[in-house]
Amino acid sequence: MIRNPELRDKPLGVQQKYIVVTCNYEARKRGVKKMMSVKDAKEKCPQLVLVNGEDLTPYREMSYKVTELLGEFCPLVERLGFDENFVDITEIVEKRLNQLQQSGWSGVGVSGHVYNHQAINLHDTTHVRLVIGSQIAEELRGAIYARLGLTGCAGVASNKLLSKLVSGTFKPNQQTLLLPESCQDLIRSLDHIQKVPGIGYKTTQRLEMLGVRNVCDLQVFPSEVLEKELGVSAAQRIQKLSYGEDDSPVTPSGPPQSFSDEDSFKKCSSEVEVKEKIEELLPNLLDRIRRDGRQPHTVRLTLRQFSSTNKWFHRESRQCALPPHLSQKFGKESSNIISPLVDLLMKLFRKMIDVDLPFHLTLLSVCFSNLKDLPSSKKGSIGFYLKQMSPPSGSGKREVEDVSQSEGSASWNQNCNSTSATKTRKLPEEKQSNIKKAGIPDFPFHLAPGDIDQEVFRELPEDIQKEMISENPAGIPPGDVLGGLSACFVEVVPGASRAGGSPEGHGNPGTSSSSSLEAGAGRSVPWVPLLGKDKEAFETACEEKTYSRQAGIIFPPHVDTKTFYELPADVQKELLAEWRSQEPVLIPLAHLQLIKMLKISSTQDVSVRST
């Protein structure tokens, strides 16, 4: 009615599909009710004007504006759905009470109605506090109307439960004050146990099986029997509610904890239809997440199957963690993420529905939750050193394409184009001879020669060289092997030859030269036999990788699992959090060696200091 003021005095309903989800008071006077079918509503009120309410964006935006406005008066504001808010005004009341005590009691009067028309006792400080609360409530409603053009009702009471129940006593655009003496009258006026906020549909069913149908039944029901049926905590909570007792605090809502959207319909009975419904829900959801700025890490699919006896409440859900490569795409171009999300949601759907048998759905809902702020690197964190780092001035230029992983895969394998250039140097002949005697090849056999600084490798301690050699993936056959891709930053000498034998491109002194490899296209390198300790190290590494898969932990490339498990638990958690929240990164070889040399005993204390 704000957008179309001419509809203000006409019977108006908001339509979603074939249902009137809500209506104004003019329509209610003519017999129209919430959740009534459009057909029945039109029969009740032929003059009913219906507006499309499929897009909830304007309602949602206005709802947040109301909450934000209330927050300007008081910080303790808790959202309840689109159109309700709890506000804890205790602190404001106490300030005004002190002012009244200093200036006298003149001007103390109730704003709005008093439940049961009960008389106010100004000698009772509880009554006075509630009277002041009614004045504040009127001020809040006035501010909402003046700034947003919205009318509304309010309830003033000593807790959340009672204020919600009493708020609807006088409608529309009015408010009601509940005094403590009238609390039981209000509670016992509820004709059904499910009218008590906090007692849901399933709890109501269990209570009805025990013979509890209204508030009076619940108040006198034996606590021992109730605790045995519902558990001690739930039984005590709902019995307190039946007496109007609610000690739950008003908790500021903050940003939304999840984003969801749903669609109801008369019938959906094929996979093709389900897929289309999901595709229709996703664009609006992705846009809301993009504007929020956080990344979700969990997705849930909810459906409702048709039931003639359980029309509204028979819902079933399945959820799963979003693969890291999908979480990182939120907030970017939505068209690139819709297809893999649909595939993931269809997998959840097939876990609930046997598609080989007939099915009849009446609702589908998609929800993204576990929202987290975008990760930020801070020096001093171990994860800081695992991020992509710019090469030093005068070093080779690094170009990396986005990594794409198959949907549903938790692999950290990186298929990417990397740039590398090598500077050839000669080691002393004596050192080369010692390396050959020790049985250590010129470079790890699972890395292509052009993808590693051989000098850095040769100058590493012997045990670290063997450790790198032992990281060959299982199943490499004898003979030629495909070199895996690795990125390294090295200085470039113009005109020098690549280790792989391919000629360098010409360049000016001080510039970078690059070479890129297509994913999966390795170079042939000689097979290096594993003998003695090398073979043992290789078998150990394979066992550790197998264990990490069984444990559900997938490590980035070149991370020593043995070293990882020797780190303190808090350091392990920090590293895992960093790996899960970010795209796979390429680690400069120099930093890789630094990480590999962090051999920390599990019995030692570790302190990290950044400079």
UniProtKB/TrEMBL annotation:
GO terms for molecular function: damaged DNA binding; DNA-directed DNA polymerase activity. Residues 1-200 form the UmuC domain. Residues 243-263, 390-432, 498-521 are annotated as: Disordered. The keyword Iron-sulfur does not apply. Residues 403-422 have a biased composition (Polar residues). Pfam families: IMS (PF00817), IMS_C (PF11799), IMS_HHH_1 (PF21999), UBM (PF14377). Belongs to the DNA polymerase type-Y family. This is DNA polymerase iota. It comes from Otus sunia. The lineage of its organism: Eukaryota, Metazoa, Chordata, Craniata, Vertebrata.
